[in-house]
Amino acid sequence: MSGTYIPAASSQIISFANPFTGVGSAQQEISLNPCLPEAEVQNHFGAGAVGLLQQARRPWPQNMCQDRTIARNLADWLYNSSALLAKTDRPLVMADIIRKRTEALLACRDLRCLHDKLPPMVDWAKTNLDRTPVYGIDDQPISVEGALLSLPKLSLRGLDLPLPGQNKFCGGGGIDDLDFFSTNLKVSGKAYVLVKCKADNGERKNWILENDGGKDWRAVVDLRANAMQIGNLRRNNHPIIFSYLEESRGTRVRILSYQDNSYREMLRYLVVEDRSKLAHAFEVERQ
Fold first, then answer.
1. What is the enclosing helix (H) or strand (E) of 196?
2. In this predicted structure, what is the pLDDT of residue 133?
3. Is the pTM above the cut of 0.70?
């Protein structure tokens, strides 16, 4: 399929000139379009990438890529759905919908099935991708981190140290090895503190401590992150936390939900921008 179709969100121009979106790795390019031309994949990424391409095509009906309409629509679905997950303010919901719809496509045993299922899925993905989330004044995504606490020894009396992994990441297990911040987490009857290493060694270690009115502070978040954000701040509910960690291949996003008296990771994915600066979600893992 020389000049293989390059999918595009509805705000972009469709191009047949270059079969690659510019996301970087062979694995990522192939995950967005399993009908890439083998010769061009080999020329761009080397002979080893052809095996990845063949493996990606294996679950699909034979001769799928020879049907130009199906090849276009499948690339459109994969491209736009991965961009939708990277953009949405409802990642847990969208991840489940995208997974179920992709599984429905993979269950197709013939080309007619793909012809029927793909067009409405593509329309749904493009429509939702074009919808910019509208936030009210009270539910703008904001940083978890607040102001630096000036007297943590006084305000956090009874804190049991070291925190999990503190000696490894902070070079010491005492309170003077840590910085403490107020947070924008607002949950009725509970208080929160964000903790970081005073001397960060590039690991970007973060803890969030919770206190429910007693003497004890306990870690309910323990992860590496460059930044954390929260969305809806309705009282009496623990808001979902979005964690972002910059890696060499992109930004690792983790979605944390409060479960069983602690924040637990519910979803993770790697965000990478394509040539047009549209972000895509790869390596999606649902817990």
1. strand 191-197
2. 64
3. yes
